[in-house]
Amino acid sequence: MIKTRFAPSPTGYLHVGGLRTALYSYLVARQTGGKFLLRIEDTDRERFVADGTANILKSLYWAGLIPDEGVTQDEQGAIIQTGDKGPYIQSERLEIYRKYVDELIDKGYAYYCFCSPEKLEEMRMIQQKNKLPTGYDGCCRKIDCTEAKKRALNGESCVIRMNMPKDGETVFNDEIRGEIRIKNELIDDQVILKSDGFPTYHLAVVVDDYLMGITHIIRGEEWLSSVPKHLKLYEYFGWEAPKMAHLPLLLNADKSKLSKRQGDVAVEDYIKKGYLPEAILNFVAFLGWNPGDEREIFSLEDLIKEFSLDKVGKAGSVFNLEKLDWFNQQYLRKLPVEDLTERAKPFFKQAGVELKVEDKQLAKIISLERERVITLAELPEAVKFVFALPNYESTLPVWKKSDANEAKNILSELKEMLYNFSEHQWNIENLETTIGEWIKEKGYQNGNVLWPLRVSLSGQQNSPGPYEIADVLGKEESIRRIETAINKF
Ligand code: GLU
């Protein structure tokens, strides 16, 4: 059975790149009936953020990428752990790591290192001065193991390093990049256990991926250079390594590595701005993958069917916000209106708008603007004119080929005519046919009637069409707004 994992560090929020890693991992598991696991890698205590895990889970659940195993949420949204390979939070697994570190020491694959930070810094400076590659020079390898253990037991501060052979090269296959070769001399004797008793990422990731039965590791390109160390650890333990796929970098528009300085990178920022999970997932799926043809709209279900790692490219992909906007608009147009209305409500609240209308009416109001906005957060502002007529200049309702007098006369005649509508006749179709015929009968030009009508109903230069607005406002309010316009002239 295929088992993938997403293994974020709780350093604050879910990065869009992390969402892509999670999505691809989720897809690979789902398309084969496998499992998707979530593990929290919190061994770097300096970068630990208290709400980090909760934030990551919130964003993942929002996107619908629900883990089958590992760190999950219960129905109330509390963090829980599910599965028989736990704990799934690395800081709760320290004893497990210690056992494996001891095994490596006993087999001679790892050693105590007593070098102080000052000594390491000095080593680095000398290497730099002599234009040598920087890295640990291996001097503590020479210390006799029994002696070293004694020193450690006596409380001398130390770390444990793995023995990394310096000759030859590591050759492995990456599911996306094919064969990769890295010279072993470039690889340090990596610290695997820190002086605070916490393992480093490198040891913990290998031990956990193995013990948790992970078959496919999917993660960002930045981890590619660590693979030789990991493979060495698998070899030392006598374990078979999982398959690995390293995803291309995400880039800013100027092709530099995607950074906070050039825009939002946290999924929660996009949630707050009113992007739909469907759009974000579709967009993120295309950062590195495409189906090989022209199709662009893919639901999560479609992606499960069609995604494959062999169609993921090696080249970095540009994080193009215009494309994201386009996806969001596509989904805003497609969503059933009741669903759209439910999803829009929190954004009215966020904008401080108290909704005093029923859902059905709100749905109608939202329908006026759903094709014109890019995000849900833009809706309250876009439909504000329905709730309160904006103040506008008396010249605004005058069509460019007309004058104030004519506009006033036409609006007055139109008002008289509209009085004759009964409430139940007041709908888009009737308004459109009746007003259309009336314009013809009178021999007016369309613009001469529809411009002043639309502006008087919306109070805005740009707005949806007059029939749609009139329908939403109802007879009484529409006529009141026409009167307001007439009185302005
Ligand atoms: N904890 C690592 C991160 O934050 C995970 C890397 C991996 O997937 O192996 O990116």
Automatic annotation (TrEMBL):
GO terms for molecular function: ATP binding; glutamate-tRNA ligase activity; tRNA binding; zinc ion binding. Its EC number is 6.1.1.17. GO terms for cellular component: cytoplasm. InterPro entries: aa-tRNA-synth_I_cd-bd (IPR045462), aa-tRNA-synth_I_codon-bd_sub2 (IPR020751), aa-tRNA-synth_I_CS (IPR001412), aa_tRNA-synth_I_cd-bd_sf (IPR008925), Glu-tRNA-ligase_bac/mito (IPR004527), Glu-tRNA-synth_I_codon-bd_sub1 (IPR020752), Glu/Gln-tRNA-synth (IPR000924), Glu/Gln-tRNA-synth_Ib_cat-dom (IPR020058). ATP binds at residue 260. Keywords: Aminoacyl-tRNA synthetase, ATP-binding, Cytoplasm, Ligase, Nucleotide-binding, Protein biosynthesis. Its main location: cytoplasm. The keyword ATP-binding applies. Monomer. This is Glutamate--tRNA ligase. It comes from Candidatus Magasanikbacteria bacterium CG10_big_fil_rev_8_21_14_0_10_36_32.
